[in-house]
């Protein structure tokens, strides 16, 4: 869906789909091998079991234990592939709709955090800054990386603008680079209405399937470097 090989040349950490919303064992192995060769860390990117909708459609009605199992299963799949390739999983970031739901729903957020803790409490939990994922990660005593999005617009409440709305996805590499440098330096994002929202910024996401993602990533790396901001891969505690 995107130029993964080119993105891995520019990223320091990558989130790998684990077969439920995208990918399969062969794609996962190839991605992990590319990441290992570049010294890039890999993380599990679990989503709803929804290949047709790319995991971007809500699936209401799942119980807490069903969500935990959904997440644990996908983390385990990538851990096995990474081990086979001589690499290791450093982090977990929920994908698409399940992440969006968890940002506002305590049960879903807790289920994701509990699954990560049960599989490996040393994994870093990548969370949308200021969301309910943060509280769930704190309750599970997980190390967290607070994430901001380079290519997505923000609502006034700090959540991402729905992809169903115009302007939700950003494409201008220069504007994105300038915006992200400000995010990192100021510890804040600016919403669609101009509201400044304070946010801890540990990691910056670029979606591999966003049109122009490689150009966005290249421009962002250059801008961060010029601003004296160093980027580095995730490292687990062990």
TrEMBL record:
GO molecular function, one term: 5-oxoprolinase (ATP-hydrolyzing) activity
Entry keyword set: Hydrolase
Claim: Hydrolase is one of the keywords in the record: yes
UniProt EC number: 3.5.2.9
The keyword Lyase is assigned to this record: no
The protein's name in its UniProt record: 5-oxoprolinase subunit PxpA
Source organism: Bradyrhizobium septentrionale
């Amino acid at each position: 869906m995107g130029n993964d090989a080119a993105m891995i040349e520019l990223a320091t950490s990558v989130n790998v789909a684990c077969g439920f919303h995208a990918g399969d064992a062969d794609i996962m192995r190839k991605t992990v091998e590319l990441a290992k060769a570049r010294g890039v860390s890999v993380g599990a990117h679990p989503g709803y079991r929804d290949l047709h909708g790319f995991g971007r459609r809500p699936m209401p009605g799942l119980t807490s234990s069903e969500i935990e199992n959904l997440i644990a299963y996908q983390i385990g799949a990538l851990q096995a592939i990474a081990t086979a390739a001589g690499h290791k999983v450093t982090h977990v970031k929920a994908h698409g709709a399940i992440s969006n739901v968890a940002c506002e729903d305590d049960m879903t957020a807790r289920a994701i955090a509990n699954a990560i803790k049960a599989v490996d409490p040393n994994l870093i939990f990548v969370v949308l800054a200021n969301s309910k994922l943060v509280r769930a990660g704190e309750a599970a005593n997980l190390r967290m990386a607070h994430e901001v999005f380079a290519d997505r617009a923000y609502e006034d409440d700090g959540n991402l603008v729905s992809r169903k709305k115009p302007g939700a996805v950003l494409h201008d590499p220069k504007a994105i680079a300038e915006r992200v440098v400000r995010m990192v330096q100021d510890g804040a994002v600016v919403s669609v209405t101009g509201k400044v929202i304070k946010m801890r910024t540990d990691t910056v996401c670029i979606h591999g399937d966003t049109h122009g993602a490689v150009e966005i990533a290249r421009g962002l790396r250059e801008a961060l470097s010029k601003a004296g901001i160093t980027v580095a891969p995730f490292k687990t505690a062990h």
